[in-house]
Amino acid sequence: MPKKTSTQLFYKYYEDWIHLYKVNAIRSVTLDKYYMSLKWVTKLAPNLRLNDLTRRSYQELINGYALEHEKQTTKDFHHQVKGAIMDALDEGLIKQNPTRKIIIKGKKPSEKKPKFLNEYELQQLIRQLNLETEINWDWYILLVSKTGLRFAEALALTPKDFDFTKQLLSIDKTWNYRATSGGFQPTKNPSSVRKVQIDWKMAMQFSQMTKELPEDKPIFVKRRIFNSTINNRLAVLCKNANIPVITIHGLRHTHASLLLFAGVSIASVARRLGHANMTTTQNTYLHIIQELETQDGEKIMFQMSKLM
């Protein structure tokens, strides 16, 4: 690798920085985001050199990105690029921190699509499922609805991951659906390795459908899988059920939402979803938690009003 100098093009420094610090250190899906940021830096500032990095030139870079992206996406881009800039500052390649007091802008957010279904809507969806005697994508949709598994976690399920006696699913891997050849890969984080309880009815159904399948092969994957294939099937089912169209990830949100509204603790929901900590669960479902707190306040006042 050539010696870095302050006259080096910034996008080249950023590319080298990704190779040095991120390759083989982060998940491939996260690495792809860094490479996408690199493409934008190259496009927006092809002639920007390290010694030309000022607060003004960096703000212009951020503004250029913000023209085509929403504010949160721009914030994520800034976070990824800033990591390289701070290292360049530590190495003495730039004199001052150009990211100081930066202003994050962005396009007006598009209309938000529904993230989850209520219990009635989920029941309507389930009634549309074509649950044949052999495993199909409708069985996949039902399983995610009842377990809250991530998309790649559910794809990676094999017959030996089912403990039908104890009604448990062992989650300890994911399926690399982005790769042409597929393959197993680690879970999102160590907390994602967990056991998820399933109801007796689902245990019986999958026991029958998986008993003749190879123990260590994914039960849903027969060929290369695309996220859009399953989401398109789900969209058709939602439209047939006359309910909001959501994604497979929306089914995970639906599962968690139903549990929270049923009074299941945040700690239990976090463990079931495989969140690294309860803060992730609280931040993701803050609107639901606030609604439940309002209901709790009413319950408290009702109980207190009965006391003299």
Quick take:
By secondary structure, this protein is mainly alpha-helical.
Descriptive report:
The protein has 308 residues and is mainly α. The protein folds into two domains: 10-90, DNA polymerase, domain 1 (Orthogonal Bundle), CATH 1.10.150.130; 119-294, Intergrase catalytic core (hpI Integrase, Chain A), CATH 1.10.443. The chain contains 13 helices and five strands. The strands form two sheets. Strands 1-2-5 form a three-stranded antiparallel beta sheet, covered by helices on one side. Strands 3-4 form a two-stranded antiparallel ribbon. A hairpin with an 8-residue loop joins strand 3 (174-175) and strand 4 (184-185). The longest helix has 20 residues, at 71-90. The chain starts with 9 loop residues before the first helix and ends with a helix.
Write the topology of this structure.
Elements: H1 10-21, H2 28-44, H3 55-66, H4 71-90, H5 119-128, H6 137-147, H7 151-155, E1 162-163, E2 168-171, E3 174-175, E4 184-185, E5 194-197, H8 200-210, H9 227-240, H10 248-261, H11 266-273, H12 278-284, H13 286-305
Antiparallel strand pairs: 1-2, 2-5, 3-4
Helix pairs in contact: 1-2, 6-10, 11-12
Could you tell me the strand content as a percent range?
under 5%
The coarse overall form would be globular
Overall domain count: 2
CATH T-level topology of the largest domain: hpI Integrase, Chain A
The helical percent reads 40-55%
Counted by DSSP, the helix tally is 13
Class by SSE composition: mainly alpha
Low-confidence parts lasting 5 or more residues at pLDDT below 50?
none
Q: What order do the strands of the largest sheet run in, or round the barrel if closed?
A: 1-2-5
Say what oligomer this is: single chain
CATH superfamily grouping of the largest domain: Intergrase catalytic core
Mean pLDDT: 92
Secondary-structure element pattern, one letter each: HHHHHHHEEEEEHHHHHH
Radius of gyration: 24 Å
Based on the coordinates given, report the CATH architecture of the largest domain. Answer: Orthogonal Bundle
Amino-to-carboxy terminus distance: 79 Å
